[in-house]
Design brief:
Cysteine Rich Protein
């Protein structure tokens, strides 16, 4: 089999083989390093400025000259008319420059109303400037007075369908008189000159120019022109007529109120005339605004109500436990599942007003403050009541018992609800709770040493009694070396 050498790609510029060590790639073609240059200006290229067209290489400038868009706005820069194709770089024909002045080309005239308003020629998209929906040439887009070049920022469209700069527009169509014209304080009364005589001021009262019925100002009936028009309810008003009907206060869109009589009012007069009346309305909270109403008329229109709800009796068992009246949600107070009036929710003894913190439910189905509850249902004797006063409710000298067990009050019907030590009933104000049951505060002490206990040093014993920690350890704690009164002590007690 005959040997066939490997075919390498050919360079499009010199048509010779291109090897891997010297290849440059552009547009899917492989070029020699020495051939990788612009076909027009012979500038060496790289990957950043290379442009390929039909297997020919160009720099970006030459590619734009040869194949880029032509005409106004393209070529050498914005606003430049460039028709350069780069033929002078190829040497195909000799380029002769002329020093004659460049005359403007004749512009084709457009039909009436379709061309440039200034010159009447056709306006193409690349050069059009818009004003009042009409297209101008860029060169024609100038002030009609001073020929200053304009743009979208400083162009001003005049009522004569022409365009002006802002200064010329102010001179020609702006307001005249003191404070207008070239600057504040200048008397400018003519378009281009200043006269020694003061300008004559003409004041036209437009309210005297009557309009057709239903079409003029609702207040005076005159014709309303655009410069003085104020709208309310879709109707035009004179600026000088747009006032409150009652107080003649000048109005604006913020404070104007449309009344039901198709007139306008300020907010204060609207509130007096059409707003709600009575205590708390109109000029301020707490202000009685009645607009001429007598006291008898106010009293007749005011609904009657009885503020004393205790006189409204409720069905038996459903009203306030104190007065039997109906208890409404706005004034109810709860105690033992029953509803009380706020004014009835006081101590049955001292009539002190109560709340959910101070109220104590007594066994007589009444409520008491804590002091009165303690006097009526609390333990008696030395140390109780007003500590350390000896309290006796019947006036007699109380008998002092040596034991710590109370001997007054009713016995508990259910032993489980009575005190574990004395068996008497335990009320909520004096109860102490342990694992085995309820205790009086006075009975809540150690069964051995009678030391008073609380929840931090109380220990429930297996025999149902309570002990302090020391006595509990002696009676029910472990025995032997290391236990008892101290580490290392042998206690068998």
């Amino acid at each position: 089999m005959p040997f066939k050498p490997v075919e390498n790609p050919k360079c499009p510029k010199c048509n010779k083989s291109v090897y891997a060590a010297e290849e440059r790639v552009a547009g899917g073609y492989k070029f020699h390093k020495s051939c990788f240059k612009c076909g027009m200006c012979q500038k060496f290229l790289d990957s950043t400025n290379c442009a390929e067209h039909e297997s020919e290489l160009y720099c970006k400038n030459c590619h734009g000259r040869k194949y880029g868009p032509k005409g106004y706005g393209f070529g050498g820069g914005a606003g430049c008319l460039s028709m350069d194709t780069g033929s002078h770089l190829q040497g195909e024909e000799e380029f002769v420059s002329s020093r004659a002045p460049l005359l403007p080309k004749a512009i084709a005239k457009a039909p009436d109303g379709e061309g440039c308003p200034r010159c009447g020629g056709y306006v193409y998209a690349a050069e059009q400037m818009l004003a009042r929906g009409r297209a101008f040439h860029k060169s024609c887009f100038k002030c009609a007075d001073c020929n200053k070049g304009l743009d979208s920022v400083n162009v001003t469209e005049g009522p004569d369908k022409d365009i002006y700069c802002k200064v010329c527009y102010g001179k020609r169509f702006g307001p005249k008189g003191y404070g207008y014209g070239q600057g504040g304080g200048t008397l400018q009364s003519e378009c281009y000159s200043i006269s020694d005589a003061a300008p004559r001021t003409t004041v036209i009262d437009t309210t005297s120019i009557k309009a057709a019925p239903g079409q003029g100002c609702p207040r005076c009936g005159g014709v309303v022109f655009a410069a003085e028009e104020v709208l309310a309810r879709g109707r035009p008003w004179h600026r000088k007529c747009f006032k409150c009907k009652d107080c003649n206060k000048t109005l604006d869109s913020i404070i104007a109120c449309d009344g039901p009589d198709r007139d306008v009012y300020c907010k204060t007069c609207y509130g007096k005339k059409w707003g709600p009346h009575g205590y708390g309305f109109a000029c301020g909270s707490g202000f009685l605004q009645t607009d001429g109403l007598t006291e008898d008329e106010i009293s007749a229109s005011r609904p009657f109500y009885n503020p004393d709800t205790t006189s409204i009796k409720a069905p038996p068992g459903q009203g306030c436990p104190r007065c039997g009246g109906m208890v409404f949600a706005a004034e109810q107070q709860l105690a033992k599942g029953t509803m009380w009036h706020k004014k009835c929710f006081n101590c049955a003894e001292c009539h002190r007003p109560l709340d959910s913190v101070l109220a104590c439910d007594g066994p007589d189905k009444e409520i008491h403050c804590k002091a009165c509850y303690g006097k009526l249902f609390g333990p008696k004797g030395f140390g109780f009541g007003h500590t350390p006063t000896l309290v006796s409710v019947d006036g007699s000298t109380p008998q002092i018992h040596s034991d710590a067990k109370p001997n007054s009050g009713p016995k508990a019907r259910d032993p489980r609800l009575g005190c574990r030590r004395c068996g008497y009933a335990v009320f909520a104000a004096e109860q102490m709770i342990s694992k085995n049951g309820l205790w009086h505060r006075r009975c809540f002490s150690c069964a051995d040493c009678a030391r008073s206990l609380d929840s931090t040093n109380m220990n429930d014993a297996p025999n149902g009694e309570i002990y302090c920690k020391g006595c509990y350890g002696r009676n029910f704690g472990p025995r032997g070396v290391g236990f008892g009164m101290g580490a290392g002590a042998l206690t068998m007690a």
